[in-house]
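Protein Record: Sequence and Backbone Structure Tokens
======================================================
Tokens: labelled as protein backbone structure tokens, with as many entries as the chain has residues.
Task: work out the structure tokens from the sequence, keeping to the layout shown below.
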Amino acid sequence: MVLSLEYAIKILETEIREYFKEDSSGHDFFHLKRVLNLALQIQIAEKGDIIVIGIASFLHDVHRIMQSQSGRYIEPKESLPFIEKFIKPLGLTDNKVKQILTAVEFHEEYSFCEKRLTNRDIETMIVQDADNLDSIGAIAIARVFAYGGSVGNKIYDPAIALGGDYEGEAKSAYSGKSGIHHIYEKILKLKNNMNTKTGKLLAEERHNFVEMYLKHFHEEWGNVQ
């Protein structure tokens, strides 16, 4: 029997919902579902293995729960044994398992930080685009401040200059900078980090919304120091 993605997600969903139920950092179960839906939207145009793309996008943030449990930053690579355990009941071929794990491992690479893109297969690029799209736009702004609060960062600190370099997830997670700084250092750069033509098109409107939000934020903040 050929495994359908719908059936695979149905098998995984109960356990994954339970695993992510305590998350308050913006990397929750609903983030996974949004990224899954975005990945499938991109896959229609860009092709790639739908099983690999769907499962990898649904499980890409397992390391975030490990992070909250351990109190230290966890690389996606460290989550791969857990993901193998989650997908074992699906009876996937060794090659599909390898592709899923690869897409998860490399989904947090960015062209604008020290750790450049090193994996260019279409499945990984689609998962990365889908995850990045959920980091741009209205929900994304809410996620920025949810995540900032979860690691003790402020909403905004005008004493720190805006527009610095993004140092990668591990350093930025506990940088002490504000949510607004995170938007400038990462979120505004994601539009140009999109891999696929479809991802680039979907990013435009979301990026414009973030720019509009920042304009209003600074107007409302005024000259408060």
Q: What stands out?
A: The chain has a mean pLDDT of 91.
